[in-house]
């Protein structure tokens, strides 16, 4: 519909998650009509990020440094390791300011159907950290999906084999949530895992 | 929160319309974790578009060619000129396949408060097209806002001075729309502009 280059830009913008054809068109026209500087800047930062961002050598989160900000902070608690699926999960937990140990990012979860086995989630790196003997507790914070639970089970077996205490983050009704609006699965879980007071 | 380059990418993505901090984070992580090829491609196309896309010499829509696809199509109806605010409006009308003339894109609307006068909306270019004498009807399709109406009025005066017939697209209840869900302003307009049948 537009000239070839603008059509190409609209298609490229559709690589962004949650962006359909209408939003992509709106974004392309906005950048070209009103924010060329922003477009130029986005293009440059994107190229730089694709070139330089890789995985942290220690925790596998995304960073352009050899070690990420958290792994390079020597004042954190070396005895606790929290295992999450994605870099966004690290940020979510950091925002809560309740955990002071280190992280390990799986960058996925076990899913044999999709060809994601222990190697893809960095189990070799993780196993060698378990073997170092510094870690006393592993907190598994994978998502409560079928794959997330399977991954949690797999990791906990490996950690226990090294004599490490393993815990799983609690699932249930969100604080401030109302029972009425909570889905059945969460409610069933919350009732079956009820705790005596 | 993330490493500096990733934070910078998240900030750059916020230049996109409708993208807040959460979506920008999601987009940045998606591109870096799962679609580096798409990110690379987006960066390149964006740089190319910023460099090459400019205004069509004749209708002022966005294009990387001297004349856009529509202006360079000699088989369209030279007697009709449709005036719209944005390139997206051209596409919207083209999709309806009901108009076969040429377009003129204002790239805005008269708004003295924001410093947008006749020159900014390309009135000089438009006036010289009116003076050429080829155009028999001008269809003003600016949006039914205060500025859009003022712009429509201004343009119609200029066209009429050249003896050109001027029409305004109809505003009212959308076809397929239900009265119950139409806003008061539209309904008031639709009743005051009722047509005898």
What does this structure look like?
2 copies of one chain form a homodimer. Chain A has 197 residues and is an alpha/beta fold. Helix content of chain A is 43%, strand content 13%. Chain A contains 7 helices and 6 strands. The first copy, chain A, has helices at 4-13, 21-34, 36-52, 87-96, 123-131, 146-161, 184-192; strands spanning 54-55, 62-63, 77-84, 101-105, 137-140, 165-168. In chain A, α6 links the parallel β5 and β6. In chain A, α2 (21-34) packs across α3 (36-52). The longest helix of chain A has 17 residues, at 36-52. Chain A is globular, with a radius of gyration of 21 Å. The N and C termini of chain A lie far apart (65 Å). The mean pLDDT of chain A is 91. At the A-B interface, α1, α2, α3, β2 and α4 of A face α1, α2, α3, β2 and α4 of B.
Index terms:
homodimer, 197 residues, alpha/beta, Helicase, Ruva Protein, domain 3, Dna Topoisomerase Vi A Subunit, Chain: A, domain 2, 2 domains, four-stranded parallel β-sheet, two-stranded antiparallel sheet, 7 helices, 6 strands, 43% helix, 13% strand
């Amino acid at each position: 519909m537009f000239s070839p280059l603008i059509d190409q830009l609209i298609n490229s913008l559709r690589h962004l998650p949650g962006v359909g054809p209408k939003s992509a068109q709106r974004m392309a026209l906005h950048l070209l009509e009103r924010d060329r500087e922003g477009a130029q800047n986005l293009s440059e930062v994107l190229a730089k990020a694709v070139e330089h961002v890789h995985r942290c050598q220690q925790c596998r989160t995304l960073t352009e440094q050899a070690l990420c900000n958290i792994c390079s902070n020597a004042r954190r608690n070396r005895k606790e390791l929290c295992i999450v699926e994605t870099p966004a999960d690290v940020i979510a937990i950091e925002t809560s300011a309740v955990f002071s140990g280190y992280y390990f990012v799986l960058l996925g979860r076990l899913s044999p159907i999709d060809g994601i086995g222990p190697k893809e989630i960095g189990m070799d790196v993780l196993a060698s950290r378990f073997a170092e003997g510094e870690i006393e507790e592993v907190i598994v914070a994978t998502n409560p999906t079928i794959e997330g639970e399977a991954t949690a089970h797999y990791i906990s077996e490996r950690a226990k084999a090294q004599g490490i205490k393993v815990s799983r983050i609690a699932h249930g009704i969100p604080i401030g949530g109302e029972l009425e609006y909570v889905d059945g699965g969460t409610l069933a879980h919350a009732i079956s895992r009820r705790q005596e007071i």
